[in-house]
């Protein structure tokens, strides 16, 4: 009997230690987030997963200030440039189907594109094409609210002079990812929106992810805000045909975990293709860049990370995956005044330090 009681107490002891560690970690993450997201202002949602399962999921602040609605973990956010992950994966899905190759020149799909014989899909994916980024053009606000077909959007910037020759430099470029979306449409016969919805969102059960809209009623939408010197204002309305395949998607923290898990489990692309995506590529000079296909490839605490952020009127987002520990951290904000980039990385650092102590 005493031996049985001893085993029970030992189990309870170890359980209490694990519970204490979890509570300490939770409180440390809370302490990072609470000063940024005030309870009466725009808020955020943050998720941390380990081995494909969430270990932290919390919401802060308001999803709608006017109606005094408290943020919940199920709120839907615009994810901005995190959209590029989906565009890159879609391109690689089409390559696996034999419908294109990353070394194809874009003139194969858009014959009249200037210097299209020298610019490849690879250049577009890695931001090394030299094409002018249309979001930096002064005339961008002339079309910001205009609904445009993808072909029209491409024609808006295609005759702009290039910033450099393909492969000479790395320069983050939204135009390149717009071209990728247009190529997806030309090759697949679907609109970009339908392709992502059908072959990614529906397949993975990402039921709360979609193409952005300011007109449609979207359940659990977190409303976007800007901060001015006199207070918060509603976000600027735009046509989402403009960010298109470079930044027009919406999602939730839980759906983004499904997305990350699907990549880990090769549900959309093969392991061989993943090796192509998550690789540091070289410029013509041989210099390495820290960008693969749709992900930035960095390090935290000496550990490799795959990450990407997003920023669009009224919203900011950030996601970081640590392959060595199978840790994923994703954060959303419904005010472009509160960037989740640094705090998401800080959470990753905290998690890595905690895991190192346990080994």
UniProtKB/TrEMBL annotation:
<dbReference type="InterPro" id="IPR001466">
    <property type="entry name" value="Beta-lactam-related"/>
</dbReference>
<protein>
    <submittedName>
        <fullName>Beta-lactamase family protein</fullName>
    </submittedName>
</protein>
<dbReference type="InterPro" id="IPR050491">
    <property type="entry name" value="AmpC-like"/>
</dbReference>
<dbReference type="Pfam" id="PF00144">
    <property type="entry name" value="Beta-lactamase"/>
</dbReference>
<feature type="domain" description="Beta-lactamase-related">
    <location>
        <begin position="38"/>
        <end position="337"/>
    </location>
</feature>
